[in-house]
Amino acid sequence: MITNIRHTGLVVQDLDASLQFWCEIMGFTIARKMDESGPHIDAIMELDEVKVTTVKLAAPDGNLLELLHFTSHPDKPNWTGGPTSTGLTHMAFTVDNLAKTCEKLQEKGVRLHSDIQSSPDGLAKLVYCRGPEGLILELVEMIKP
Questions:
Q1: Ordered DSSP codes for 55-110
Q2: Whole-model pTM?
Q3: What architecture is domain 90-142?
């Protein structure tokens, strides 16, 4: 069956702003950028004449995030959900220094949901914030015993 998680795909409306956030603020690097179209992508998506730019972003540990920007089938963002909404609610990332990360995010205009919180078991510090286009991000720093 499944041997690993290959990547997580996010459809974005503003590719430049998303790349700025994920690369300049969050530290991802561009692994691959492609303009895709043709019968294979039409078949996969069950659509006609798809034109999409895909950008694979690599986290420092090698995990991939894929941004998809459709030029052929524009969509209006309609997800206004929160942490209890059905479906994808958030993405979690481990950071080395949560306080410094939060400071950097706030300098860039990112709003944190709360002050940094400690997990009840004392093993982690964490906070939620909003990324591009409203995606909830959970940032976690593991506390060394």
A1: EEEE-TTS-EEEEEEESSS---------TTSSS--EEEEE-S-HHHHHHHHHHTTP
A2: 0.84
A3: Roll (3.10)
